[in-house]
Specification:
This protein has helices at 49-56, 78-81, 100-111, 116-124, 140-152, 170-185, 197-200, 221-224, 238-247, 266-275, 290-297, and strands at residues 4-17, 22-34, 38-42, 64-69, 72-74, 85-88, 158-162, 189-194, 206-211, 214-220, 230-234, 253-255, 258-262, 282-286, 315-316. The protein contains eleven helices and 15 strands.
Length: 317
């Protein structure tokens, strides 16, 4: 049995407008999300992330391709697995005049969840102390945390979050980030859809990057960022070190006053300089970030488009 929680193969979605114009939103997408941890589903606005999520949840029909959740084909077997899935895709509907706790209690009663799960969910999303405040008094960050708490009432094995930090201030973003990190560490598989790549890098263990509805890259964050190895070199005499490295076949560069050197291993740098009596005061790997890597992948592309005629009118499947 596959250890993938989400798996799509050749997934494609074409929208047709009321005027008959076709727009390709997802193009042959192969998505593989392993069990456990936080998997980033990354791409700019309009790249097909939400459309893919809606297809996985049975809210939109794929034009072609296959999808599996927990190894089961969906949407055909969606009723068998949907109980293991929690999702925050659109703004949830809560009663503004009820407290956060009361809203969760009512929802728990509807889905048949034990009452104690309400308190567990409140603790997990760190709403303690504000759970008895009215929902309408909540900040956007608190409302998002309550939405996540609502999905936790059925103790899902997979939690899908679509742009959960949209519109939040820095404090709200930090709160949601900490909640997501804790959930991933607890054993829940989290699919985190976002276009804020620098923010996602702080919580994701693996990621898929898409652009124009198609797969650009996928793997663990460490694998994705292993794009060449560059080191920051600090020595008492940078000019002498530069001359030695150039003579040894390296191509050092001075960036923002720092000496950067590409090498397969740090030992190559230390050997060249050490043999000449130039001693390092610092040698540190320069780690790429997801945002820089994403820009490399999409250089020259028209982000958010699909290369097909679009429409500003309402799209229908």
């Amino acid at each position: 049995m596959s250890d993938l929680v989400i798996e799509t193969t050749g997934l494609r979605k074409v929208f047709t407008s009321l005027r008959g114009e076709r727009r390709v939103a997802v193009q042959g997408l192969d998505l593989a999300v392993p069990a456990g941890g936080v998997h980033g589903f990354l791409g700019p606005n309009g790249s097909g992330k939400t459309t893919t999520i809606r297809m996985l949840l049975g809210l939109a029909r794929p034009t072609s391709g296959t999808m599996r959740l927990f190894g089961e084909p969906v949407p055909d077997h969606l009723p068998q697995v949907i109980g293991r899935v929690g999702a925050v895709v659109e703004s949830p509907k809560f009663s503004p005049n009820f407290s956060g706790r009361r809203n969760l209690q009512l929802l728990a009663a509807v889905i048949g969840a034990p009452a104690e799960r309400v308190e567990e969910a409140i603790e997990t999303v760190k709403l303690g102390g504000r759970e008895n405040d009215r929902y309408k008094a909540y900040s956007l960050g608190m409302k998002q945390r309550l939405a996540i708490a609502a999905t936790l009432l059925k103790q899902p094995d997979l939690l899908i979050l679509d742009e959960p930090t949209n519109g939040l201030d820095p404090a709200g973003i930090r709160e949601i980030r900490e909640t997501i990190r804790d959930l991933g560490a607890s054993g829940v598989t989290v699919l985190l859809s976002s276009h804020i790549l620098a923010e996602v890098q702080q919580v994701c263990t693996s990621a898929t990057i898409i652009g124009n509805g198609r797969l650009l890259a996928s793997g663990t964050v460490d694998e994705l960022l292993e794009v060449g190895t560059s080191y920051r070199v600090k020595v008492p005499d940078p000019a002498a070190a530069t001359a030695l490295l150039v003579a040894a076949g390296f191509a050092p560069a001075t960036i923002d006053g720092e000496l950067h050197v590409d090498a397969e291993t740090p030992g190559e740098i230390t050997r060249v300089l050490g043999e000449a009596g130039v001693w390092l005061t610092e040698l540190a790997p320069l780690r790429a970030d997801l945002e820089s890597y994403f820009l490399q992948l999409t250089e020259g592309e028209q982000l958010g488009g699909d290369g097909h005629p679009g429409t500003s009118g309402e799209a229908v499947a």
